[in-house]
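The instructor's notes for this session suggest beginning with a concrete chain rather than abstract definitions. Hand out the sequence below and ask the class to guess, before any prediction is shown, which regions might be ordered.
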Amino acid sequence: MLVVAVGAMSAEPLEIHIIADSTGESAARIARAAITQFPTREFRTVRHRKMNTTASLMSALEAVKERRDHGLVAVFFTLVNEELAGLVRSFCRDADIPSADLMTEAMHALETITGIEADQVPMRPPGVEAEYFVRMSAIDFAVRMDDGSIPAALRECDICLVGPSRSGKTPLSIYLAYLGYKAVNVPLVPGIAPPSELFELDRWRIVGLTMDAERLMLIRGQRVRGMGGFGTKDGYADLAKIYDELDEIGRWQRKLGCPVIDTTGVAIEEAASRVIEIVDDRAGRVGARLRRPPGTTRSGTHFTP
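After discussion, reveal the predicted structure:
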């Protein structure tokens, strides 16, 4: 457990020094996730990459210690070499620097499960070749299919998002594609019937999106201003018209028989998790199955290198 005593110095930024034998991206992701749990504090991350020798590692640790003399610091490290990892643990303990070993315990757990010792080879590329190509293909699909631009290709998708303009369809479909799912988004526009191909799609693949009308008005208002006022006359950013639009879109979503997620204030990762769980569950109910990209589990949780 990483515990940092702040006391009277709580107003000072806390530096998280990431020490890694590769890029440090894995530790950086964990650091970002942890930081979100302390919204009232200011943090700064510093990466020390490719720490593969004792000399380079000691140089980085001395730099961390120097920063420790001027403020609050903590160390997150991902080193597969047990000797180097032990060196960081000892140094941080002696220097009274809070630290978190993000790699060693995970490797030890796998050693216990498999009965095989870890190779401890720094900078070894993760075995994600298949996952990489699946992601690239899915992202290409999502970009080409943005806003339902090719209705005839809807049948190729894993997941289909339908909802009003600016409700988060495009970024969510791209994020789902990043996870490896072939996602498509189709806008539902007032006064215009959705493409017929949408009604031929498996119902379990479709998820509706909606958003609070006032929040939608603010987002659209920003877009209108950025476009020099375009869209002000047709009610695109008019609150009363947006309420009517959401009512009409809601009727189309009910005709499609799709569950609806309110994306107001929801992080894209959380929205994606909800979408995957919904589609997965609905597929199972009708004896179908959502295609599972490499790197995904039954629950839809995605593991990235």
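Then share the key points. Strands lie at 14-20, 43-48, 72-78, 99-101, 159-163, 183-187, 206-210, 260-262. The mean pLDDT is 85.
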